[in-house]
Amino acid sequence: MLDIHLPLMLFVLALFLTLLVLLNNMLFRPLVRFMDDRDASIAKDLEAAKSVGGNVDELNAKADEMISNAKSEAASIRQKAIENEKTLAAGKIETKQRELETQYNTFVEKLNSEKEILKNTLLSQMPLFKESLKAKFSKL
Question: Is 90 exceeded by the pLDDT of residue 2?
Answer without folding.
Answer: no
